[in-house]
Design a protein that fits this description.
four-stranded antiparallel beta sheet
């Protein structure tokens, strides 16, 4: 990966829908060269996909929470697989310390959050959970 690839990735992280022509102009390369670079980054799985960020103010308030899970180590993979099937689960991270996984959840209301926490706690291999409800965001970086 060279400096142009890094600049391209940085631009796409800001706006993945920016036109190829605009990106090529900003990077000082031709549109076809830009397209070739993007295709190569995708083939090498450096770029795994493109996504959107939603305007939560327009969509209405959502309840965000982080759920810490203590697991039976033999069930780690099956728990992660089960979590991937829950639409409210936004991401799952392996962590160090007293817990094994950190699960980011987003729901429409506290009743749904309660049901999701219950469903996660009921998964085979989950020994203990601790739920942290996020009240507000002081700032957020959208770089990943």
């Amino acid at each position: 990966m060279d400096a142009i690839d890094q600049a391209l990735i940085a631009r796409l992280q800001v706006n993945a829908r920016e036109s190829l022509s605009s990106l090529a102009r900003e990077l000082g390369i031709s549109r076809s060269t830009l397209k070739d670079r993007m295709d190569r980054l995708e083939r090498r799985e450096i770029i795994e996909g493109y996504t959107i960020r939603l305007n939560r103010g327009v969509l209405g308030s959502r309840i965000k929470a982080q759920i810490l899970l203590n697991l039976d180590q033999k069930q780690n993979a099956s728990v992660a697989q089960a979590l991937s099937k829950l639409i409210e689960v936004q991401s799952v991270y392996a962590v160090s310390g007293n817990y094994d996984l950190l699960v980011n959840v987003e729901t429409a209301d506290t009743e749904t959050l309660d049901a999701v926490v219950d469903a996660i706690a009921a998964l085979e291999g989950v020994r203990h959970t601790q739920t942290l409800i996020l009240f507000s965001s002081k700032f957020e970086r959208h770089t990943t």
